Amino acid sequence: MAVHLCVTPRLKRTLKSVANPGDFAYDLKQQADIVRVIGEYVQLRKAGAQNYAGLCPFHNEKSPSFSVHQSRQFFHCFGCGASGDVFTFIQKIENITFPEAVRSIAQKLGVPMPKVEYASPQEAREAKMRGALLDANELACAWFQEQLRKPDAAHAREYLKSRGLDAETVEKFRIGFAPESGFLLRDRMKGEFNEEILRESGLFSWKEDATRDSESAKSAPSALYAKFRNRIMFPIRNEQGKVIAFTGRTLATDEKSGPKYLNSPETAIYSKSRVLFNLNLAKEAIRGSKDAPGLGYAILVEGQMDCISLYREDVHNVIATSGTAFTEFQAKLLGRFTKQVVVNFDPDTAGAAAAERSLALLVSEDFQIRVLTLEPGFDPDLYIRKKGREAYAYALKHSQKYFDYLIDRARKQYPTGTPEGKLKAVNYLLPHIQRLSSKLVRDEIAMDIAHKLQIDSTVLKEELRHVAGSRTATSVKASAAPQITPIEKMLIRALASSNQLAKDPVSSREGQDLDFEAARQVHYVLANETLHAGLQTERLIAALLKAVEDGSDPMTLPLGEGDRRTLATILMGDTETLTPEAMEGAFASLRLRRMKARRSDLVVEITAAERKGDSAALGRLSLEKMQLDREIRELDEESG
């Protein structure tokens, strides 16, 4: 059920970079379940009463160090140090601004957005441009779909039918047609978008008129004409299903028609190296949802027609690189949904080389990989259309483990009947082995390669040890954490326990409230007695005290890396209930600590007064020490 907020003037405040009490972002944050939001990007498992753990999406890791605290609505990675609230996560994972992150989460929750103001004119222009480009692409996509239904597009419909695409599939993938005219789309869009948006959309080309001066160029539009003409149009959608670009497949056969497949240029909303075709439809089949379990793995193909044809035959966990080389960003994007992948590229030389490059990248990202090699002359599209779904399912079931595939490739390229051929095969395979992070796995594969290439395993292992020794470390060991006392942890947890106190956070009743608030009590005592002075966590506690005074969210403090890691470690280990008795015990211990420190200083000062013969100072210091000894004794007896 969608949650709705009443949009009042109070909500129409400036969205800059943090959620402050009273503004729209703050109210929205209270409704957003950070576990559910992050769970759309990271596979999380319960790791405690309030903690969830998973693999960090911001750096490469094999063991989960990414933790989400549900009640505090806070995430932290103990590997790379990334941390923050739900807005921070969306900003970082989507590479967007804070206002755009707020808008994204509001859309996920079905909360209507108030009017948004941006932190700077530049940020506002960029956000406005991205929004306009999404609108322009959406309009163009709907227009292409409309053109496909017209009589002039009969040859386009016939082509799609010849490729086995029925009306349901065409509608599902929003396939359309760009007519031959270079001006129909321009005329349709120019009434709704200015020339700057049309130029930036990637949908048009133009020729500048060299005779126009700079002033007239600003006021008079240049001769824009459609980039895509007489082409089947395949929209490229981002993970959320928004149309961000197009691929146009030509229907012409003459040399002037241009490339067979023409792609949109890169824009403010589209980068081909950061998108996986069909991920918006495939992600639930890969990962699963609350209602339906996912398959747990993805099928990676090269072309969009390969992807569409497989999807049409109910192979819904398929994604495509759209003919581009697989990139590190795409690997990380896919890794948010699964770490298991079947690579099914064309079996020709180019396809094999592409598969090899993708394998290398996926190995580095710790994917479990299989390779599906179809019969010569068949790409995935042709194979499933000619041989059917069951044949493809059988081939999928018998796909090779990736190193078996590489060993076969090595055998084909380098005949292993001679010592020279075996050496070349080993040298071909060694770089792939080097990318494996686990020494145990490297040893197991070394034995397998030795057996299949009939090479002495001892010799091969020596080569592997040499290569492994030159590997660059993929992670930095965390330095030893400071020794933080249980009392310090208690103070920090208490101060972080309230996101917003009253405007006057300090009670006028000597720190006591009818309803116990740990943050209020700790603030009162520490602000008046500075009992945290000299503690290992003094700087962090001071920052939290300031957050309580300001009424701001402690989870959004601009802390240094060490303090941020310390705060996250303490909060993620939150297990003990904070009670008035526990807090009073902590204060008593800190007071006793301060008294004993003062007593040590007095001993030194008394010795110095005796040495100088200063009887007045000696008497005053001795009296203070006697009083302090009595107070320390009383506190020791109370605590004992």
From TrEMBL:
EC number: 2.7.7.101
Gene Ontology biological process: DNA replication, synthesis of primer
Gene Ontology, cellular component aspect: cytoplasm; DNA-directed RNA polymerase complex; primosome complex
Cofactor note: Binds 1 zinc ion per monomer.
Coiled coil: 592-638
Swiss-Prot/TrEMBL keywords: Coiled coil, DNA replication, DNA-binding, DNA-directed RNA polymerase, Magnesium, Metal-binding, Nucleotidyltransferase, Primosome, Transcription, Transferase, Zinc, Zinc-finger
Entry keyword annotation includes Zinc-finger: yes
The reaction(s) this protein catalyses: ssDNA + n NTP = ssDNA/pppN(pN)n-1 hybrid + (n-1) diphosphate
ZnF segments: CHC2-type: 56-80
Origin superkingdom: Bacteria
Entry domain remark: Contains an N-terminal zinc-binding domain, a central core domain that contains the primase activity, and a C-terminal DnaB-binding domain.
HAMAP family: DNA_primase_DnaG
Function of the molecule: RNA polymerase that catalyzes the synthesis of short RNA molecules used as primers for DNA polymerase during DNA replication.
Similarity comment: family membership: Belongs to the DnaG primase family.
Name of the protein in question: DNA primase
UniProt gene name: dnaG
